[in-house]
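Customer escalation, tier 2.

The customer says the design service returned an amino acid string that "doesn't look like it belongs to this structure." They asked us to rerun it and document both sides in this ticket. The original structure tokens are below, unchanged.
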């Protein structure tokens, strides 16, 4: 498919959209370009992709307890952001003249491409949003959801990274995750993980800053109660939180280190003994692929994160039980078929990085096949 032009438009809200798009394009033999913004642009560029860094999404306002503030105001800002993205997408698509537009939850590019008669593919975790309660927020969101459903109906394919039955043009391909290039022990040595390691991931925005402080407090309590301590907390604060500001109380003297932004979070999750994270879909999928015991704390009021967390038995109120939950996870064995126990031969058998990363690789391959088939029409 080298003669086909494919334009990806990747939501820059968090890094999960970009990480799964990286996993997909590995299996596409086509001319691919990306339009996104911020940390997502940084991650894609680091993976060697051609990227336009043009989108600037609205910030989530999250208080110190982890609750989403003013969701109706955020939705209104998102609507204005959507209009800005339509102008950007119109310019990019007119210039690139792609055979197919692939949108990872960037609905503006889908709208523009459909208006121009270009084939469209949507990659999404959701079929509608549910941020607001009460008028006028629900009226605005209802209008947006109706427009979203019409866009999906007109798409050549809608790819959902989850297990389940495919219907009409909606294809559920299973989780889409990146595969590690090294064994767990190799990654641990490279990262200097010598103790029981608790990895804290707060995503690609600054919305998860509240979680850093709460985990540091929980780890202090855990270390006081564990004979000999023996744990280390590693904070991946992402591209939107300054290292110096990671945690209002700071990390000095708290047996923790800040690694800031990393482009191989999937490998660090594999290397860690416990993961504590916001409840983003891609991070959950990468943790399940790695077999790493995990605690997922959703932003309260963020419907998608709350649903992701509930599927695994977590809720926003668990923020007040972190010491108890992390302590239990530290004593929990890794899943015996997790990939990290094997050598990095990639054959999926007893000697390779296979197991659950095979399912993530299968999802990425299935998505790539769908994109290729639509582009070839």
């Amino acid at each position: 498919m080298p003669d086909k032009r494919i334009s990806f438009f990747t939501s820059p809200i968090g890094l999960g959209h970009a990480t799964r798009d990286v996993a997909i394009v590995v299996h596409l033999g086509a001319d691919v370009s990306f339009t996104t913004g911020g940390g997502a642009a940084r991650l894609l560029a680091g993976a060697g992709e051609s990227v336009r860094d043009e989108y600037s999404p609205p910030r989530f306002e999250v208080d110190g307890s982890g609750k989403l503030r003013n969701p109706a105001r955020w939705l209104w800002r998102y609507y204005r952001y959507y209009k800005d993205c339509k102008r950007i997408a119109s310019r990019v698509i007119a210039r690139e003249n792609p055979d197919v537009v692939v949108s990872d939850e960037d609905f503006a590019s889908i709208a523009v491409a459909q208006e121009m008669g270009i084939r469209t593919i949507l990659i999404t975790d959701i079929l509608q949003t549910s941020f607001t309660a009460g008028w006028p927020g629900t009226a605005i969101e209802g209008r947006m959801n109706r427009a979203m459903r019409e866009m999906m109906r007109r798409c050549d394919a809608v790819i959902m990274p989850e297990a389940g039955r495919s219907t009409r043009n909606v294809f559920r391909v299973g989780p889409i995750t990146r595969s590690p290039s090294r064994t767990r022990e190799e990654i641990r040595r490279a990262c200097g993980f010598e103790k029981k390691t608790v990895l804290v991931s707060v995503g690609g925005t600054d919305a998860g800053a509240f979680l850093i402080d709460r985990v540091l407090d929980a780890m202090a309590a855990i270390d006081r109660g564990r004979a000999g301590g023996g744990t280390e907390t590693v904070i991946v604060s992402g591209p939107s939180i300054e290292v110096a500001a990671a945690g209002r109380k700071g990390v000095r003297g708290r047996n923790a280190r800040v690694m800031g932004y990393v482009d191989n979070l999937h490998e660090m999750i594999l290397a860690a003994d416990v993961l504590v994270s916001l409840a983003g879909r891609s991070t959950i999928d990468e943790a399940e692929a790695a077999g790493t015991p995990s605690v997922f704390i959703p932003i309260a009021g963020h419907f998608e994160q709350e649903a992701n967390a509930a599927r695994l038995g977590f809720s926003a109120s668990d923020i007040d039980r972190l010491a108890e939950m992390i302590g239990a996870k530290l004593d929990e064995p890794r899943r015996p078929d997790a990939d990290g126990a094997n050598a990095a031969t990639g054959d999926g058998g007893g000697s390779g990085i296979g197991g659950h990363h095979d399912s993530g690789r299968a999802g990425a391959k299935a998505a790539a096949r769908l994109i290729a088939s639509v582009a070839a029409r």
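Tier 2 assessment: The sequence is consistent with the input. The first helix runs from residue 16 to 25. The chain has two domains: 5-178+358-375, 184-339. Sent an explanation to the customer and offered a walkthrough call.
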